[in-house]
Amino acid sequence: MKQRKAERGTMLKVLRYIKPYTPLIVCTVLLSLVSVAGQLAVPYFVGKAIDLLIGKGEVDFGNLYKLFFVIGGCVAAAALAQYFQSLLNNRAAYHILADVRRDAFRKIERLPLKYIDSRAYGEISSVIISDAEQFADGLLLGFTQLFTGLFSILGVLVIMLVLRWEIALVVFFITPLSLFAAKFIASRSYSMFKKQSEVRAEQTAFIDEMIGNLKTVKAFTHEDENAEIFAEKNEEMRKASLRAVFFSSTTNPVTRFINSLVYAAVLLTGAIFVINTGGAFSVGNLTAFLSYSTQYTKPFNEISEVVAEFQNALACGARLFAMIEEEEEPSDKDNVSPANITGDVRLENVSFSYTKERKLIENLNVEAKAGQRVAIVGPTGCGKTTVINLLMRFYDVDGGSVSVDGNDIRELTRKSLRAHIGMVLQETWLKTATVRENLCMGRPDCTEEEMIAAAKAAHAHSFIERLPQGYDTPIGGEGSLSQGQKQLLCIARVMLLRPPMLILDEATSNIDTRTERIVQEAFAELMRGRTCFVVAHRLSTIQSADVILVMNAGNIVEQGTHKELMEKGGFYRELYEAQFG
Predict the structure, then answer these.
(1) What CATH fold (topology level) applies to the domain 2-16+115-324?
(2) Under a CB-based contact definition with an 8 Å cutoff, are residues 370 and 445 in contact?
(3) Cα-trace Rg, the chain
(4) Residue 581: its pLDDT value, please?
(5) Which among 196, 154, 186, 190 has a CA at the least distance from the CA of 172?
(6) How confident is the model at residue 529 (pLDDT cuts 50, 70, 90)?
(7) What is 345-580's CATH number, 1.10.760.10, 3.30.565.10, 1.20.1540.10, 3.40.50.300?
(8) Are 458 and 495 a contacting pair, CB within 8 Å?
(9) Does the global pTM surpass 0.90?
């Protein structure tokens, strides 16, 4: 019952995506009617042609030639209708696929980071790419064969009842066995295809993780272990796929066996009528009837295949729609968008944890005046980066408040808040594009002079000039730039933005000591007059900060200037002496 309810819910969502393409579907239905009419007319005229072959020397060639032209016209009309039907089917199916993928991608951009952080990136990619492809294939097969099959069944049944209702009843009562068999198999294959889709996503996530971190894998000679893990996942995928495909594939042979019974029954009863009706039911009629019985049973095979494939499509569609219907970040609809932010930041009684079971930050209080340089230090896992996530509103606090210029940041639009904060992280990210497009990402309307000035300030201009096409050089992939060069581009990107607030999370960790000293000078110029939050492990880089916050286990245990904290002889001094002996 629960599975049927889930299938109905998924089907309703599919229909919502189909609705904008109703005109295409209507045209497909009309073309199906034309195609079926042309196909059903052929056996009737072939039967008439056979009856004109009365015996040796008694062939009515005049009418026979006319029938040949009529049959040729019916075949041509059916072929053209099928061609245009396939054309429209493809158009509808792939438009729907594009719509679903668009909504899924837009949803990712609106999902809270906790959703992305809690899942493997490869799994999310698998849903948007592989599951969407399977979903489209099921729709395409359904549009192509469903309407034609239904019209064929109804049309053939009417013609057979007109030609000889007694034989039509034989066909009518045996054929439903195919439907029962197809329904029995399809109802059990949905869960198998769903399992297959889930295992495929896990496998894709593992492959994505391994390819993305292949250097680490090779450095730790972990290839054999990974091969074993992949072999296990591959075997699980093989079993899930084999079970789903094998079980759904039994539909065809079962329905074909029942169709053979129908054909034999028609042949036997038809022959009896030919012998006993004295010509009222001719050999031509029997030939047409046999052809119609094949045409009547064939759609049952096709529809059973469609049902099996559609179960796979529904299973993949359910995963897609589950992502599309995930709860989004709270709306910014009525929030404030301040034109200017000076940079007074206050965290009051903030509590936050990524999971309810594990407390991280409790009753955190921080105050930073506009233009102050605030450094955050502490051991790994103490909550430094979490504070940054809260300031950027990547996550909302569980308790207390974070305010900028006296405004709770939950009352500001995310766009306006983040537009006033420049952030450079330890993990560099550059999109696959030119150097120019990466630098101007935050300010696409900047001038050439401003862009070059920012690159010079970040000491990136010299190596950019040495690239094959300078600022118009495409970059992307691991080998295009060194890690340090990528970091310099990220720094230049923020320098071009010149926001009132800065967040630097180990921003110079990938730069050599000489370049770091130069960039620190550039940062000093950039940070002048701006509120800055600097997360650092190397304590030598934050000694000039206006205030240093020392965190441990989610709490601020000490705060003050470098000199004050060293004189105090507490936890900060322990950290400092651990680094410098």
Answers:
(1) ABC transporter transmembrane region fold (1.20.1560)
(2) no
(3) 35
(4) 60
(5) 154
(6) confident
(7) 3.40.50.300
(8) yes
(9) no
